[in-house]
Amino acid sequence: MIMANILQEIVATKRQEIAALKAQGSLAVLRRQAEALPPPRDFIGALRKKLALGLPAVIAEIKKASPSKGVLREQFDPAAIAVSYGQHGAACLSVLTDQQYFGGSAEYLKQARSACDLPVLRKDFMLDEYQVAEARLMGADCILIIVAAFRDPFISAGSHRQQEEAVVEMRKLESLAHALGMAVLVEVHDGAELELALELASPLIGINNRNLHTFETRLDTTLHLLDRIPPDRMAITESGVLTPDDVALMRGHGVGIFLVGEAFMRAPDPGTELARLFG
Ligand SMILES: O=C(O)c1ccccc1NCC(=O)[C@H](O)[C@H](O)COP(=O)(O)O
Q1: Mutate which of 9, 239, 266 to test ligand 1's pocket (most atoms within 8 Å of Cβ)?
Q2: 32 CA to centre of ligand 1 in angstroms
Q3: Ligand 1 within 6 A of 68 CB?
Q4: Which is deepest, 189, 220, 228, 234, by most CB within 10 Å?
Q5: pLDDT digit string (tens) for 31-59?
Q6: Can you give the pTM of this predicted structure?
Q7: What is the pLDDT of residue 155?
Q8: pLDDT given for residue 151 in this prediction
Q9: Is residue 138 part of a domain?
Q10: How far is the CA of 99 from the centre of ligand 1 (A)?
Q11: For 230, what's the count of Cα atoms within 13 Å in the CB-facing half-sphere?
Q12: Does 1 reside within a domain?
């Protein structure tokens, strides 16, 4: 039997936030404001640059807290963290903007982005085009689409209609993000989600090693799915990369792109820890 998990709780909260956002004005107005901004930074280009040099491409995360670990960092200064990441070779940033579960905010994204020249992923639970326009307006250069957030855990994985509906909804977010010049990171946890992710156009496929029911992270998740990612897509291993051995294991299997949060957030200087882990 499939049980509800933390993601379903977060999704329910997001639906309330989206309703409040919609009450403030129309999508057309938000979109026009977003279109008037200077173009986003090149998120995919920044990853490719590192890979072309034979270096790991690290998406360095800024998150104060998480549902699995509670508060990760008491002294939390997003601008200082962003500078440190930039000085120690990060390719891109990932900034949590969810307040309730991760202690994040749009302000943190703005502060981090203004303090460096790295492209920034808005790390949040995107379900609606309003959030995509809002992401650009806060400065995001990339958005996240979590495939599991579009699948009903109480409908069997084999329900064809539900899968088609999920793809339609995800494509709406992807096409608005692309129209606004942003990249899209599509995140999966298993093979069924990967099949849906490959229905989208984005080359960025994140494999999240965290089990959303138990919070356990297993790097095997990445290793099991890696062979099923076509060569025109870019695999990113996400969550649970904590030690140089973890990095070596992934690199040994040809993984070049990493999204890392906790290991950096717990360190006195997050950028120094990035250099130690990936040095
Ligand atoms: O981090 C959590 O506890 C969490 C719980 C439920 C949904 C998502 C969650 N994390 C989001 C992430 O994907 C991670 O912040 C990211 O991959 C970095 O992971 P880590 O290096 O393990 O902090």
Answers
A1: 239
A2: 32
A3: yes
A4: 189
A5: 999 999 999 999 999 999 999 999 999 99
A6: 0.96
A7: 53
A8: 85
A9: yes
A10: 14
A11: 11
A12: no
Distance CA 19, CA 100 (A): 16
Residue at token pair 């994204």 = 109
Q: State the residue range of the domain holding 273.
A: 6-278
Q: What's the mean per-residue pLDDT of the chain? A: 95
Q: Give me ligand 1 centre to Cα 209, in Å.
A: 9
Q: If you take atom 12 of ligand 1, which residue's CA is the nearest one?
A: 239
Tell me if 21 sits within 8 A of 134, measured CB to CB: yes
- Span from the CA of 212 to the centroid of ligand 1 (angstroms): 9
- Give 23: exposed, middle or buried? Use CB within 10 Å, 0-12, 13-18, 19+: exposed
Closest-CA residue, ligand 1 atom 16, reads 239
Rg (CA), the chain: 18
Determine the Cα–Cα distance for residues 52 and 6; give it in Å rounded to an integer. Answer: 37
> How far apart, in whole angstroms, are the C-alpha atoms of residue 36 and residue 128?
21
Kindly give the number of the ligand 1 atom that is closest to the alpha carbon of 241.
21
Q: What is the CATH number of the domain that holds 179?
A: 3.20.20.70
Q: Domain count of the chain?
A: 1
**What was the ipTM of the complex prediction?**
0.98
Which whole number is the average pLDDT over 238-260? 98
Match 């973890």 to its residue by tokens: 246
Closest CA to 206 of 225, 220, 192: 225
262 lines ligand 1 (CB under 6 A): yes
b vs e for 29-54, b when ≥16 Cβ sit within 10 Å of the residue's Cβ?
Answer: ebbeebeeeeebbbbbebbbebeeee
- Does ligand 1 have an atom closer than 6 angstroms to the CB of 97? no
61 lines ligand 1 (CB under 6 A): yes
Banded pLDDT at 156 (limits 50, 70, 90): low
Å from CA of 262 to ligand 1 middle: 8
